[in-house]
Amino acid sequence: MTNAETVSPGQAAAARLVPLAALMIVIAAVVLGTFILRAFNKAVDPELSNRSLLIGTIVRADIQRALDLGIPLNQLAGTETYLEKVLTDFPEVSSITVRSADQKVLSRAQSAEETARQKQKVQIRSNAGDSVIEIPEKSFTFPILTGNELVGAIVVEIDRTYVRRQFRNVFLDVLVVILVAILLAVEVTITVTATSLRQPLDQLYMLLERQVSGDFSVRLRQVTTTSLGRVAARFSDHAEDLNARFGRLLDRYSRTASDADIPTGLRDLGSRFTLTGTLPRTLQLTDVVDIRLPLFLFAMAEELSKPFLPLYIRSMIAGEPWLSEGVIVSLPLIAYLVALVALSPVSGFLAERLSPRRAFLLALVPVAVSHIGLSISSTVVEIILWRGVAGAGYAVATIACQEYALAAASFGRHTRAAAGFVTVVIGGTFCGTAVGGVLADRIGQNNVFLVGAVLIVVAAVVALGMLSGESAKHTHKGSATTGLRGFLSVFRSVRFVALLFGIAIPANILMAAFLWYLVPLMLADLGSSPANIGRALMLYYLLTVAIAPWVARLADRYSSTTTMLTIGGIISGLTLIALSREPGFWPTTAAIAVAGVAHAFIRAPQIAHVLEISRSAPTRDQALMLGALRTFERVGSILGLLLTAFLVGRVGYATAISATGICVAAGTLLFVVVALIYRTRAG
User: Fold this and answer.
1) pTM given for the model
2) Is 117 exposed, middle or buried (0-12, 13-18, 19+ CB in 10 A)?
């Protein structure tokens, strides 16, 4: 069994418990959703009846006042205009008809879709499978009297499409909340299982292995509230007792003779069993799982504004702008990326100098402040400023967590560690994107930023308890060289250049230009709400989260990162080119989903490919190459976003999407050509 395939006892136990816990969470969420749907079905019928009764009563009272003045029912002027205004005030009504006692229609107002809907079935099925809203087949009739004589009636009919649309929105909002709750619960379950079972069990086995080999220099934290804790305490006591006895022997000789006169046998005994005569140091291991929950909450908070941020920026544009609207909308996004580029070179150095834990906690402060600032901003300049602050904090926080994950990973499992990091970031981004759109519709866009600030505070509290205070030893070689000359030295590797310009930069252009910029604006122009935009965008992150671990296992097992990257690039480019031919809500949603699948083949294998290239590159500096990759791919994103904003103002969305797709496809072709040349020379 290779090192890459070795599974510790704690990992084996957690692998059995986590899927079972996740299954129980899913079952609970499905049951909850079922009860919510049934409750909605029961509540909608009486509520519609009450609303219809209210509307009919109001209309009849207004008409009755005219009849009391002596105006005949068939001579009322402006009745249709009045009824159309009522329809505007009450969108759940499809038509209002005023008819005479002999059933002759005197006035009628109806929505534009009512004629086509009259032939539809009474039972309306939502997009949620078999969930059905029962709509009463009858209309509501209100008699009109003159004295005791029946002179006519008012007929109110329900707008079934309106009800279906409201039900769909409620159902989708509930579905989004359930999905987010499931992901959050799974992250909490993984964290709790790791801290209460896997890590203590692995540490106990490590302590036993050391003591079997004659090493009594370490002990475990004294936690006696669990069975594992009591066992660990017992064996830790052995190490403490032996070191205490050895220390007393050393003290006895120190009082009567110099250190040089200590018997050789006693020295050999201390060397053989690693005894120091002092209290053994506490064994504290870093683990990739430590970063999962804090990073998940942080990413979720930072991405809450994703579905509506371009719309929020556009709403701040006042007067005649000196730049085109498309370019102005892109400026806060560019400020965010510029801050990422500026801080990326020093983020790895900060993580190494301060420790990843301190760097992560320090980075949360400006991001939380930026969210508060965004909630009270009233101009585009303020938004640009605060997004730049958020980008700086995001750069430090994510790179600190990535360094922590790579340092904590065992030999041969770097791709899985990178995949775990990417999965957590994308999982948090998925939850933030999905919930952010719903919250924007429910509580307003400004208040969503305040929710993000609260989540960041929660992430800081969790990180204080989860991340190890000790700086982990880097398992990958290299230094934190950050100068421009150091970064430019990576261009001596042709394979790195091909990866950067062929895969990394095009993939980031797709994310920044297409997902962050084009999709919200394009779908908003098609009439989509922030909640609908969020639901469409969340498919990208959901599919990436679902597929990335499987891709990472394949890449680790077959060492096929080049193949994975090629597949991801080809799918991405062809998808955008196809979308430019047939834009629309559903084609755009499908393109977002396919892009999520494609990027699952890129994110984690890309980091592993850099580590592979560094072993044969002239610099042989993995940290330098990773830093250069992060920096230059974001520079490419900035240029791509600016070019896209310029194209949107000149030639429209379709051409801008097509240009992005061609860029991704051409870059993949470049990467494949260089990979084939390298393989031919190596063979």
Assistant:
1) 0.69
2) middle
